[in-house]
Design a protein that fits this description.
The strands form 5 sheets. Strands 9, 12, 15, 16, 17, 18 and 19 form a 7-stranded mixed beta sheet that branches. This protein is 25% helix and 20% strand. It is an alpha+beta fold. It is globular, with a radius of gyration of 26 Å. Helix 2 (197-208) packs antiparallel against helix 3 (212-222), helix 10 packs across helix 11 and helix 10 packs across helix 12 (511-526). The protein has helices at 111-115, 197-208, 212-222, 228-237, 254-262, 281-288, 290-293, 314-327, 342-352, 364-378, 422-437, 511-526; strands at residues 3-7, 17-23, 30-31, 36-41, 46-50, 53-60, 67-69, 73-82, 332-340, 384-386, 391-393, 399-401, 403-405, 408-410, 413-414, 451-455, 474-478, 482-488, 491-505. GO terms for molecular function: acyltransferase activity. Keywords: Acyltransferase, Lipoyl, Transferase. Residues 107-126, 141-164 have a biased composition (Low complexity). Residues 3-78 form the Lipoyl-binding domain.
Length: 533
Amino acid sequence: MPAAEFPLPDVGEGLTEAEIVQWRVAIGDEIAVDQVLVEIETAKSLVELPSPFAGTVTGLLVSEGDTVEVGKPIIRVDSDVQVAASTTQPGGSAPVADSVPVSPDLTATPPAAAAAPAPVAQAPVAQTPPAPAQQTPPAPAAATVPAPTAPARPAAGAPAQPVADHATVVGSDESSGAVLVGYGSATTSPSRRKPGARRAAALAAEASRASSADAVAAAEAAADPAEDSISEAVAAQGTRPRKVVSTGTVLAKPPIRKLAKDLDVDLTEVVPTGLAGEVTRDDVIRHAKQASVFRNIETPEWGDVRRETIPVKGVRKAIAKAMTTSKFTAPHVSLFVDVDATRTMEFVKRLKSSPTFAGVKVSPLLVFAKAVIWAVRRNRSVNSTWTDQEIIVHHFVNLGIAAATPRGLIVPNIKDAQDMSLFELAKALEDLTLTARDGKTTPQQMADGTVTITNIGVFGMDTGTPILNPGEVAIIAMGTIKPKPWVVDGEVRSRMVTTIGASFDHRVVDGDVASRFVHDIASVLEEPALLLD
């Protein structure tokens, strides 16, 4: 069995080194293709590296905490099977002659089996969880129902293929971050099921071989609130239902379950408000009392150690370099304005109750982001890049969102945000936030931003003087929205007020342009109907 070494790849943006954060395998482990080997931290993100090999780990060549240069071998594997890596990857191994291609879901196929065609549609092994060995599945449609033990029998006419014991299906979950350029699976097949039909057949099959109580639990677990249940509920009712208290299995998407775990929330105690009785993000945050999410819940003791030394590396090193370069290169100028955001809050409330936005997080940040895009269209120079020889004005908006993560500040951006509808922008904001919180933001997602927004209001702050993201000439901060006295038609009334703070590169943006830009944003927050323009 030949030994193969896996060098540290360039995961993007021309990075030259990365820190080994955590090994996910140990010497002696049997690994499958695309199984996560190690978690590394670059100057921009936390990345999981998948294996291009299937075999046995014989050596971990670097230790956790080590900083490794790109191209240096980090792991050794005894392997008969190897997936061809892209020639653009540093140190990438050439394809092995006569080797059998390995799917991310299957181990190597014996030559005899490989000679026969095996259409995926006839043998959905990758989607088939284990089923009892002594029972025969009634139909391929039932393959989506989880079963407890031995591998399921393939459909008639399809060659048997062993399922990898430790294989990780990369790309089958939107939370997966293991696929890299030149490594891992090339494509994944999207589901083509008809709403409700495939699930109904699967549940019927499950019910035929389980007790009635087990069948009910399986039906609740198989329900997909993000697709069929919500669409069917909307079609049947047309309106958002009242709060539903689930008496069985809690319905919640994986990201919602992770949020609940992070906030130490018991989902069985949360009152769901989703269309199909599923728990939403707002439900979890409401249960956890949102204020505690952004504050120190515990006050730790001082401890015996008088000083702590924290190495400056990874994201913190990148932040320090970027902020220093920006602050002492671009002449910053900042503007502030108070805004009556009462109508924005009413608009957000209407969106939350709309079936169109069911299952998507809607917040004032969504309206703020849309307002910034609208204002950029009216003031193009704020969407520019300064070079020593020229000013490059971008006629598209890659909207950066400053995100506070456990690893530090990062600024991923939404590509071509100017072309998105309000719903599409809401979904993009939600996906970006979840990815950043999970530490899965890639260098590509942080590249090529044109203008940035930051929501310091979630921390209870009224405003601030944000520092420009390097390469950009404008950054806009939204403060907290809270009741304040406000003069309306000559009378003092309680209104929902926020403060907009913005910083600009004065080499590019003059005071009049900056003022008009901030005023345009404020106008939309005061009257969201302007977005209909």
